[in-house]
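> run fold Pectinesterase
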Amino acid sequence: MKSICLWLLFIITLQNPTFSQVSEIKIEPLDSETLKGKVEHDIVVAQDGSGHFKTIGEALDAIRVYLPKPLIVYIKAGVYKEKLTILGPVTNVTFVGESPETTIITYDDFAAKNNMGTFETYTLKVLGSSLTFKNLTIQNTAGPVGQAVALHAEGDRLVFENCRFLGDQDTMFASGENSRQLYKNCYIEGTTDFIFGSATALFENCEIHSKSDSYITAASTPEWVAYGYVFKNCKLTAAEGVTKVYLGRPWRDFAKTVFINTEMAEHILPEGWHNWSRQDAEHTVFYAEYGSVGVGANPASRVEWSHQLSEDELKYYSKDLIFSGKTIDADYYGNRWFGYQKDSSFNLEDAWKKDVKNFPQIKPIETWESEAVTESRGHVYKELGYRKLQLDVFFPNSAESPRPGIVMVHGGGWKSGDKELQIPMAIALAERGFVTAVVEYRLSPEAQYPAAIHDVKEAIRWLKVHANEFGIDTSRMAISGSPAGGQIAALVGMTNTREYEGVTSLESTAEIQAIIDMDGVLAFHHPESAEGQVASEWLGGTYEQKPEIWDAASPLYLPSPVFKPTLFINSQYPRFHAGRDELIVKLNKHGVYTEVHTFPDSPHPFWLYDTWLETAVNTSLGFLEKVF
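> ok
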């Protein structure tokens, strides 16, 4: 039996490593005994000898503990009969099979075999934290002989994507009172209590398949744990002849299990839940549903001690809240370990549909091709391992000498938006003689503060390193943003200490000479500020939970600010310039130039519409001509 710890770095769904990359890896057979605990490069496991190792256990034994950078273990197709315990301090490894149909980890222990207990019957036991498995089958082939666990998972920050878990009774032990586990696009089958334990586990887009009349879940959530098992957008299916299945029963008091927007076939009993013949448990468990569909969805017939979630209650079941904890949620690259889906809620079309109701004269600004401007798109300024961050540059054709540069940061409440929203203004400014760059950065669903600050600073460094290519005068560079981008622009421009800079290999600074803040808050916790949920999502908690982070992200409250000439362009709404007036007092005290321009009757995203764009551009030009 192989025993080792594995810390697998979470890689976002559509950008995970695939077997197309295996051909790029140098393959030389390795001696697992000689190299035990020393390997730092990507590994291929293949039973036919075409990889570095023939077994998974040998590969795991070879990996260096506390890796300085991530590596990938590719597992070629095969049936790997191995009983694995993943324990200790091997970190930053991604474990990828070819497909769940062809890459199979299997064993056949069961509780009645050699006097084994349930928790000795596992095929794969996962005690380490920050682990990810992709494209695998994990199975226990003992059959219907009692408890026989396929997966025993107790670590924290565990991710299983596109995996199959096959067994009968007790297929999956998802447990650990401080464990958070994500199962995405997985298939899980079993007979009795085949998903059981104390973990906080989210099942997204999974098929849950019952092989007999019995119970799906048997949660043992501790009283002090908020969530337990949450199933979202799943599908409950059953084998032929299976007609009487309960959603769950409480293995222990205070069990928590919730099904949200789940399709339930006819095998689910109308009452839905069972009390395990313990009426006292009815007063402590939390069993709930929202939006169940299908023949098995019978909200009116459910046991009276279960719940149907309200719309208000549903909002507490977002992924970031389910997985919230006292520790940071960042992986090696600073991104959320449980992945993200791109938020497109802030876009030009939807913004216009909302604002035109109050401003019927407005027309959205569309991007145009300018004969006076050269466009240079898709420059990679930062590689994150799992994906690349890009920026687009626009510069005047007729420039005979280096021109001032403007780095432009889009808005969207730190969670949405796109650099494309800044392109019309970027072209307009380039037509007037500036080199402009619109920047992609990581939003809150992907990575919390300060990742966006680090990204934008890296973009500035990259532009300086490539200044000759675009004709940028690096001694005259400004940063502009709106509106969340305005807050980011101000913070980037006013900081130069380590916590704001991030890690870089570029030989340049992120210093700029001027700031343009369009409706970006300068203080999150402030009498004029109305920032709440979206700020909390970016800053990792409410002000009450993370006051030091809220203040650190507020330009007004910086303990050692680097003051720069600043232009504030604002809409009619005071909440979007919270902290501005106090900051101007500080700037004036230090003799730093400021300007304020307010559009008295305007929507919040005024820069997106023809009525205000030209004025905003001219105001920016006038300011920059003065300070440059």
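The chain is about 15% helix and 25% strand.
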